[in-house]
Amino acid sequence: MAADLGARLSVNVTGVKQGYVSATVTSAQTATVQLQRVAVVAGTVTISGTPLVTMTLTAQPGTWSPSYVRLAYQWLRDGVAIARETGSTYTVGMVDIGHRLTVSVTGSRPGYVSATAISAATAMVAQPRVTSGTVTIAGTPAVDSRLTVQPGTWSPGNIRLSYQWLRDGVAISGATRSGYTVTLTDVGHVLSVSVTGTRSGYIPATAVSAPTAVVAQARVVAGTVMIWGNPNVSSTLFAVPGGWEPANVSLSYQWLRDGVAIPAANRRTYTVTRADVGHTLSVAVTGSALGYLPATATSVRTVTAKF
């Protein structure tokens, strides 16, 4: 009864019998009478999302009753409340690595006894791993050509990339930049590049490109050859080469009479003789360099010797 609120209750029991003096016994008092309230009925709390660093977890509170229950959240790490994490979502941080997460949900409504439910724990938060991109190589695998790494897309952001060029799968000493100039040492071998991505708190990842085609032996790039001088007997003709590559190319000369080599005429200059009168003179120049296949070019201008 409402009149009993705040009071303690007891009961008197009196026993009577004819011919006997009656007796009364009083019970001990009850606790203070309080208003009895119905408790909120909690739902089944679960967590959705993957327990990895930078991922967002969401509390799924389930169905609570009665209607209009106010829900409050508290995220926990190994059962200990995480300061200021009282929303329905939680972003996993580096500090959570090696721990399990839960969420406590408390439902309240005026006139009802509050109820609290805690989710099952997540799996242990693992150290995140860098996700590698697809590494490719741009450029032609030929001596003196420049190859460039195309690292692809790595995640998460702010990944630091380091490079190591490989010859037949073996690291090339000092070749640790994003570009590589093919050398004579690479002739007959294939090249690839290993890229490693690192970020603080993450397990690094490494990706290796597909190998290039076999690096072929380079060939000297032939330039032009011209003849300077008057084709008169006893006059000197000069071979004038230009535009040969590489820079250290060595040039040798062979003068020709009607397209046939003139014995011992293998200098840059040639003195016209009587035997040349009425014939056409030209010069062939051969360029050679260490590790390169030679190339030969014949003068574009020929001359007819005369007295």
Counting DSSP E segments of at least 2 residues, the number of strands comes to 26
The helix content is: under 10%
Q: Sheet bearing the most strands, described?
A: 5 strands, antiparallel
Q: What structural category do the secondary elements indicate?
A: mainly beta
Mean pLDDT: 93
Q: How is the CATH topology of the largest domain named?
A: Immunoglobulin-like
Shape: rod-shaped
Low-pLDDT stretches are none
Total count of helical runs of at least 4 residues: 0
Corresponding CATH architecture of the largest domain: Sandwich
The topology string of helices and strands comes to EEEEEEEEEEEEEEEEEEEEEEEEEE
- Cα-based radius of gyration, to the nearest Å: 47 Å
Can you identify the CATH class of the largest domain? Mainly Beta
Distance between the termini: 148 Å
Proportion in β-strands: 35-45%
* Number of domain modules: 3
How would you describe this protein?
This protein has 307 residues and is an all-beta fold. The protein has 3 domains: 81 residues, Immunoglobulin-like, CATH 2.60.40; 73 residues, Sandwich (Immunoglobulin-like); 81 residues, Immunoglobulin-like (Sandwich). It has no helices and 26 strands. Strand 1 and strand 2 form a beta hairpin. The protein is rod-shaped. It starts with 11 loop residues before the first strand and ends with a strand.
